[in-house]
Amino acid sequence: MIRILRLIPAAVAVAAVAACNTTDADVERALDPLNVIDETNLADIMLSAASPNEAVDYFRRAAQEDPTRIDLQRGLATSLVRAGRAAEALTIWQGVIDHDGAMDQDRVDYADALIRTGDWDGAQAQLDATPPTFETYERYRLEAMIADSEEDWDRADSFYETAAGLTTRPANVYNNWGYSHLTRGDYPGAEELFVRAISYDPELFTAKNNLVLARAAQGNYTLPLINMNQVERAQLLHTAALSAIRRGDIDEGRGLLNEAIDTHPQHFEAAVEALRALNA
């Protein structure tokens, strides 16, 4: 027992000497995994919470400091698309999919950026290069949009239906699907899909506006029974008014414009200008 007790101070002394010999480089190496974790968390925050342009600045700076990290390149490309700068993102996405660490999702995101720039063929090529076993909401949503661009309605319907079944928040899918039917001239079908979109997301104003367009195309200018605030009601009345005027229902359009102006809690410049032009 005495020998063991004598060895303890010696061990402490050895540890102390080892600690004294630790260099700054050793400390950096020891802390490096912690830095990676912190940077990953920060990257997630920048993608989800920061403004798109702030995220672009962060990822561009980080990627320049460490150009070998694919996650930073991926974050930069994603942020550029979010900021409405899809054309700038294309080169970055190409570099990402050429990287050894590229994932199937990267090709889907690259296809999304290509669609935003009008390169439908390029987008289809990226989706075709993605394994068929990679089945996600984003992939089928893009497949449906490409089918729409080719007016392949049966294929589009199939892809929209699949996409809607792969997400717990299908409001945007139903809205896009409804707009597809709107462009085909299937106004009742479009109306049904827009109602379904709003049922999943009562705040989705685009679907509300599209619903008014679908009803107006059938000569029905009354607003649907959906939740809307006063500003939204005025804007939807304005949409119905313009639709009525385009269909030649001038009196209905004039009345709806007046109602929109009276409904809006502030000065409704667009409706005022439309009414002035109509009266002129």
From TrEMBL:
Pfam families: TPR_16 (PF13432), TPR_19 (PF14559)
TPR repeat residue numbers: 171-204
Signal peptide (from-to): 1-25
The keyword Transferase is annotated on this UniProt entry: no
Keywords attached to this entry: Signal, TPR repeat
The name this protein goes by in its record: Tetratricopeptide repeat protein
Phylogenetic lineage: Bacteria, Pseudomonadati, Pseudomonadota, Alphaproteobacteria, Rhodobacterales
